Amino acid sequence: MPKTRPFEEYTQEYEDWFTKNNNLYQSELNAIKEFIPPDKDGIEIGIGTGKFALPLGIKTGIDPSPKMAEISRNKGLEVIEAAAEDLPFENKEFDFVLIVTSVCFFDDVQQAFKEAYRILKPDGFIVIGLIDKNSELGKIYEKNKAKSKFYNEASFHSVDEITRYLKNASFKNFEYKQTIFTHENLLQEVKDGYGKGGFVTIKAEK
């Protein structure tokens, strides 16, 4: 079953993080924006409360948390309560799929990526945003996850691991961007590649 409990119980704390850490949030958003065109029809898997979908112009999403899905609906987004491993959409529906910091909560990452591939149009692409397990920030998250309300059940992944999963799902032509080089709440630059930044975005084509 999807790990929804913390997001049902601590929804306000989730929202508060973005307010308290606005510069880090904006840095992550900027790294994602590098790969999201304004004129494409996309879906966010794990849309949460719409913190990324809204500023990126994404109108549709899925989330297994009823409470978070309702918050997104109240913001004007179309949200279906569903799991990433079993998407309630037809083949070849969307131009792109976005997944931000949700992969670590998936029950079956490989199946989720196969489903994302299925619903993409032939020239579609996927964008993943994640905390890189091998980065300094990722090591901090991993070390402290047992004490975290949100991440105590998470399974963090490295960029290389996610790349392998994507390749196994038939994705190709990979690009990478990185940010969050210090966990201080500062607006940080976006650089090509990965290996230094704690937050990495991966783009891969169908």
3D architecture notes:
- The two termini are about 30 Å apart.
- The protein is globular, with a radius of gyration of 16 Å.
- The chain contains eight helices and eight strands.
- The chain has one domain (about 5-35, about 40-205): 3-Layer(aba) Sandwich (Rossmann fold), CATH 3.40.50.
- Helix 6 links the parallel strand 4 and strand 5.
- An eight-stranded mixed β-sheet has the order 3-2-1-4-5-8-6-7, sandwiched between helices.
- It has helices at about 5-10, 10-20, 20-35, 55, 65-75, 110-120, 135-145, 160-170; strands spanning about 40-45, 60, 80, 95-100, 120-130, 170-180, 190, 200-205.
- With about 210 residues, the chain is an alpha/beta fold.
- The protein is about 35% helix and about 20% strand.
Descriptive keywords:
single chain, alpha/beta, eight-stranded mixed sheet
Topology readout:
Blueprint: H1 5-9, H2 11-20, H3 22-33, E1 42-45, H4 53-56, E2 60-62, H5 66-74, E3 78-80, E4 94-100, H6 109-119, E5 120-131, H7 136-144, H8 159-168, E6 172-179, E7 191-192, E8 199-205
Parallel strand pairs: 1-2, 1-4, 2-3, 4-5
Antiparallel strand pairs: 5-8, 6-7, 6-8
